[in-house]
Automatic annotation (TrEMBL), chain A:
Phylogenetic lineage: Eukaryota, Fungi, Dikarya, Basidiomycota, Agaricomycotina
GO biological processes: L-valine catabolic process
Assigned keywords, A-Z: Hydrolase
Coiled coil: none
Species of provenance: Calocera viscosa (strain TUFC12733)
Protein name in the entry: 3-hydroxyisobutyryl-CoA hydrolase
UniProt KW tRNA-binding keyword: no
Domain Enoyl-CoA hydratase/isomerase as annotated: residue spans: 14-351
SUPFAM superfamilies: ClpP/crotonase
Keyword Transferase listed: no
E.C. no: 3.1.2.4
GO CC annotations on file: mitochondrion
GO MF: 3-hydroxyisobutyryl-CoA hydrolase activity
Catalytic activity, as annotated: 3-hydroxy-2-methylpropanoyl-CoA + H2O = 3-hydroxy-2-methylpropanoate + CoA + H(+)
InterPro entries: ClpP/crotonase-like_dom_sf (IPR029045), ECH_dom (IPR045004), HIBYL-CoA-H (IPR032259)
From TrEMBL, chain B:
Keywords recorded for this protein, A-Z: Antioxidant, Metal-binding, Oxidoreductase
EC number per UniProt: 1.15.1.1
Protein name: Superoxide dismutase
Catalytic function, reaction form: 2 superoxide + 2 H(+) = H2O2 + O2
Organism for this UniProt entry: Calocera viscosa (strain TUFC12733)
InterPro entries assigned to the protein according to its UniProt record, in alphabetical order: Fe/Mn_Superoxide_Dismutase, Mn/Fe_SOD, Mn/Fe_SOD_BS, Mn/Fe_SOD_C, Mn/Fe_SOD_N, Mn/Fe_SOD_N_sf, SOD_C_sf
Protein family: Belongs to the iron/manganese superoxide dismutase family.
Function: Destroys radicals which are normally produced within the cells and which are toxic to biological systems.
Any GO molecular function: superoxide dismutase activity
One Pfam family cited in the UniProt record for this chain: Sod_Fe_N
Amino acid sequence: MQRLVIPRSHGAARIYELNRPRKLNALNEPMIHLLRSTLEAWDSEEACNVIVGTGKGRAFCAGGDVIALAEASKSAETRHKALSFMKHEYELNYFMGTLSKPYVVLMNGITMGGGMGLSMHAPFRIASENTIIAMPETRIGFYPDVGANHFLPRLKGQIGTYLVLTGADLRGRAVFEHGVATHFIRAERLSELVENLAHLSEPSFSGVEEILAGYHEQETDEASSYLATTKGREGLEDAFSHDRLEQIVATLRWLTTSDGKAGQWAKETLAALDMRSPTALKVALEAIRRGKQLSLAQDLVMEMRATASYMSGVSPDFLTGVDTVVAKKDSKTRPAWSPASLSEVPYERVVSDFFEGGEGSASASSVTVPVLALDQEREERRRALEKRQRSSSEGLE
Amino acid sequence: MAKYTLPDLPYAYDALQPYISKEIMTLHHKNHHQTYVTNLNAAEANLASLAGDDIKEKLKLQAALRFNGGGHINHSLFWKNLAPAQSPAARLAAGPLKDAINRDFGSLEAMIKEVNGATAALQGSGWGWLGLNTKSKKLEVVTTPNQDPLLSHAVIIGIDIWEHAYYLDYKNVKVNYLDAIWHVMNFQEAEARYKAAL
């Protein structure tokens, strides 16, 4: 039987390899449990000084098994399976974001959705020329979760808002330029890097940083993505710093009148937003705005609430999206979203249906929200640990 | 307890151009070698703080000591056996080393070919060496894996074949790096080592 997650020991390094290459290492429930138990063991193993995440094949991890999730969410009898999967996934995301050992993720390939959940919260995130990242959930009528609403708003500017709403991707060096990755290292150097990490003599964050600095490919003068240029950043900030979708759309419409690349970008972005589920867009925007103020644990609790609504059919768009885009592999037709336009989705309704448990909302009656088992102290301990280690001066006393 | 420090380069960071770039020398010295020194000190500090009978813990530290200690030794030797291309040290002058090379390999070119061949053939990361067999007094080509130091022979010349030594200049074309490095080889230092080892 195929081992879905292969654990390896090399010196002081503990390496997990996602091994489902024909499904681009998409996460299923067994993999979530394997990862959790493996990491629990490593995080408390004395001889382990660094944890490394990798994936076999051309993806690190392309996401979760959405078809199975959608199927399970259809009926009240099987719904708990979908909720259970999401609960365990979020708990894993939290655990990975609060490891006491340095955690290095080699995003050496497609890293999307659930795959971002495994990597975003790591202190060391390596992009190579093969990396492609995205949070494409709004394409399938869902919203970006897995702690994205904690991580993405903390990047510089509105790149996070752009990524969650459009589902657009970033590739190669651009992943580093926008801060999604902490380092950019060519794929062929990664095995030498792991060799080096294997010889760390203690679980030191600054020790890992030192090693990574020797492999990171230094900045070139030209930005690799339009959005990293001055003009690109301006347009991005102008359009995506609003708190309401309607304002974002209005700014983009105005920007389409700009010359050259700026106008073209605005047109493409509007076209992308038009294809997305209107409900999902509003949920995603509200989530990322709220997440900026939340700790990782608080953010995941918020997401569990919104996700529970989705898995309980509060919006039919998740099933529609999975059916059209994933099952039928149709990315050209606009799925039959319901409601079909932004103006038919009142903001207040989005808040009450997905974020609060107010009276008269769909939530009050039929949505059970699983309680996440998150030890909030882990986050504080980890923050203090990192701060102590990374601010310590070079050399020893 | 000894505290190891990063030795200064005997030349400027750009002195080995165009054969090895300033960028590589800077990263190689300030990052990679410095990391070995830092980690070696850390490993030794950990070792010193262990109880005398804690054998298990001592064994665990051995890998870190071997790797970082070897890395420190190897790189310290390496900087010294390089020299700017225009300096007189980069020529193999007439003398005992030149005689020994001709005797054991036939010619300088033949020796270079053999060292480069063995070094390029190393799988993974490691070092290529021209060493002196102290029993037979013959010059021989040796390789060591990872950061293992050369212990079986006296070190005459070392070549770092870890990717970080050449990647930024030569990408994955190792052989170009190996051809280039002989233009900046410090034969004077090599001869001094040879004489000392006889």
